[in-house]
Amino acid sequence: MIGFIVRGVKKAFDSSPAEGQELYRKYFIKTKLYKAYKAGVDEILTADGYAEAIVEK
Asked: Please, what sign has the CA dihedral across residues 17, 57, 23, 28?
């Protein structure tokens, strides 16, 4: 599941940083369903240079 989320956020971010951030929000801010995957997703996004996609609000 982590890989799926990371790929989606990266693809959206590559199209537009705002799109990547909005997809991240849909997974981790607007719902708590994927909370268990957040740390892993954050780690990979940061390591791969997509730290800007990580938002808190």
From this structure: positive
**Residue whose tokens read 């740390």:** 39
pLDDT tens-digit readout, 23-46: 999 999 999 899 999 999 999 999
Amino acid making up residue 37: Y
Distance between CA atoms of 1 and 34, rounded to whole angstroms? 9
CA distances from 28 to 6, 48 (A): 12, 19
Instruction: Say how many Å lie between the first and final Cα of the chain, rounded.
Output: 22
Which pLDDT score, from 0 to 100, does residue 52 have? 98
